[in-house]
Amino acid sequence: MTREPQRDSETGSGERSEPRPIDWTDSDTFARALERVETREKGNCFEDFAEGDLLAHDPGLTLTRWGNESWMSQTLNHDPAYWRSDAAAERGFDEPPIHPDYLTAATLGITVEDLSEKGGYFLGRTDVRFPGTPVYAGTELRVESEVVSTATSSSRPEFGIVTWRTRGKDAATGEVLCSYERTNMIPRREPVATDGGGSATAADADGDEDGSDLPETFVTPTGGFFEDFVDALETAKGRDAAVAYRHERGRTQDDVTVASLPLATLNTAKQHHNADVMGDSPSGDIVTYGDVTRSTALGHARSDERTWREVGFDDEKFHTFVAPGDTVYAFTRVLSADNDASIDVAGTVRFEHIAFNQDDKPVYSGTRIAEIRKRTA
Length: 377
Fold this sequence. Notes:
The chain is of the alpha+beta class. It has a single domain (46-373), classed as Hotdog Thioesterase (Thiol Ester Dehydrase, Chain A), CATH 3.10.129. The protein is built from 10 helices and 11 strands. Strands 1-3-4-5-2-8-11-10-9-7-6 form an 11-stranded mixed sheet. Strand 10 (346-356) and strand 11 (362-373) form a beta hairpin. The protein starts with 26 loop residues before the first helix and ends with a strand.
């Protein structure tokens, strides 16, 4: 049976009528509409993750000289091998390569929409590793994350805890360019009852610090070569001393570091871009992407070193937010120095870095392994 077309009640024609006009520009009308419509939400809740799940993050990102140099310049990472062709050639590079800090930030930024867009505390990142070969501009980065574990928060029933293993790969070759494991608190759709015996939260972890007394003496290396770190550790050996020092430079957070740099890595988290939502948060404002804070502190530290190559990072934590107007400083402790680098002209040094703000409050901490150039090379 053929159905007759519905006729417009006024015109009597067989044409479908247009929707009733609504004056969306009338403030009261629009406000009432916003109260009644459904919001299409972004991101995933805790219940959406299950151990063993593999997520391929879309869309990927082509690593560019512009993105790399923008990141390095704004975070004060001025290693000439990443800026000048002659310095790059001396290091064995075909051209100035992509800096590991930008690579790490881009790898994480791409994952935000799928993993942590809903918000929740960043509990830590560890086992950050890079290949021995350089990564160059023009490389197309594709990222995937595997759910390692899910757990209940002992103190926050509205959250769960998820750990992912993330890998950033060269789309052309499949080579892993950056990998790490990170853990976040993720909002639940429905809070659950807890008995207080679940996994630790960031607040719980902060309470476990032993508060040991400071050493009697702090030793500062006389220079930034590998031998200088070896000598400083020898000076401190057998004494109540530590090789530790602060770096003079600071970087005050502005519109570029807080909002623009995350966008260059496809980091869409509202914490960095939505001042309206963040006005009711503890920070009272949008906050700096953690990898900007981290890279800025490392840039300060590297300015006092002869860095040859970044090997990796462990035990990274972000202790409090950094907001526009805050200044990021850096403090370094040297943990060890070993003559076991991948190349004869460098040695391996393990550092502990602390980023802190203008009120001397730690905002980031982590350990770093880097190959540091030898003076005698």
